[in-house]
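Student: Please help interpret what follows.
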Amino acid sequence: MNNLRLAVITLAISVATLVCNNKALAHHSFSAEYDSEKPVNFTGTITEMKWSNPHGWIYVDVKDEAGIVTNWALETSAANGLIRRGWRKEDLPAGTVVLVEGWQARNGTAAANISSITFTDGKRLFAGTSNSQAPAQ
């Protein structure tokens, strides 16, 4: 009877673990969302930075040749990964101008997975891209 009880408890724990970790199981790969054949490289002005997991997000206003402003959503690695790479919350206030390098979303929207941002003073921060074809950072 004890073996049956142990088996039921083990099964219950396994199911609970899978249910609780469903977010990790549903995490997307780079190639599912972004196109390594569509590099982006532009200058824009930060409007917001979201320090979150599993990805941080930077929102940047980019003005095209016609003067039309588009707000781009830029995916980075997780907040703790950014901090380990030298990022600090105080580095990214709204209004900061940055050069962005990365890859555009497959669906053609103003979204990208970024490899780095460079500030006007030349300081460069690497974003920890999930693009397996990207050069080592």
Remarks:
- DSSP finds four helices and six strands in the chain.
- Confidence is low (pLDDT under 50) at residues 15-26.
